[in-house]
Amino acid sequence: MQQNDGMTLIVKTVTRISVWMILLYGIYIIFHGHLSPGGGFAGGVIIALALLNVLLAFGRKFTSEWLNISFLHDLESASATLFLVIGILGISLGGAFLANFMNKGELFALLSAGTILTLNIFIGIKVGMSLFLVVWVLAGSKIVKGE
């Protein structure tokens, strides 16, 4: 990594510390979306912002070495497919698309919402990876850079 890549040493140091807390908070929002405000979309946005924080602080070259961009693309595609699989299982097991066919569990427990938690996880992955990858592509675009 060159000295000029990314932002200042202070921003890079704060990012090294805070990115993990932001990712953890995004995961928390996804996993508790059926119990409190939040869910897959909000948690996915928070996860995308954590990854964008790394991109802004360290630059595109470091981020491409730190993250496997092709894996993120595959993860984003797989999450949409898995969401549809849950929907189709709802048709076959519950009688309607996205019908809740799983045990609802105990009230106010983490596993108390049947398929909602599973769908929140897939939506969080889809939203997080999609938002990050859109900005990733735009960051590498010559039109945006003005070249």
Please tag this protein with its features.
147 residues; mainly alpha; 0% strand
How do the helices and strands line up, and which of them pair or pack?
Layout (H helix, E strand, L loop, with lengths): L8 H23 L8 H19 L1 H7 L2 H26 L20 H26 L1 H4 L2
Helix pairs in contact: 1-2, 2-3, 2-5, 4-5
What's a concise summary of this model?
This protein has helices at residues 9-31, 40-58, 60-66, 69-94, 115-140, 142-145. With 147 residues, the chain is mainly alpha-helical. The mean pLDDT is 90.
Describe this structure in words.
The chain has one domain (9-145). Helix 4 (69-94) packs antiparallel against helix 5 (115-140). The chain has 147 residues and is mainly alpha-helical. Helices cover 71% and strands 0% of the residues.
Radius of gyration: 18 Å
Q: What shape does the CA trace take?
A: elongated
Mean pLDDT, as a whole number? 90
| Total domain modules | 1
Distance between the terminal alpha carbons, to the nearest Å? 23 Å
Helix content: over 70%
Low-confidence stretches: none
Total DSSP helices: 6
Please summarize the sheet with the most strands: none
Order of helix and strand elements from N to C terminus:
HHHHHH
The secondary structure category is: mainly alpha
In terms of DSSP E residues, the strand content is: under 5%
The tally of beta strands, per DSSP, is 0
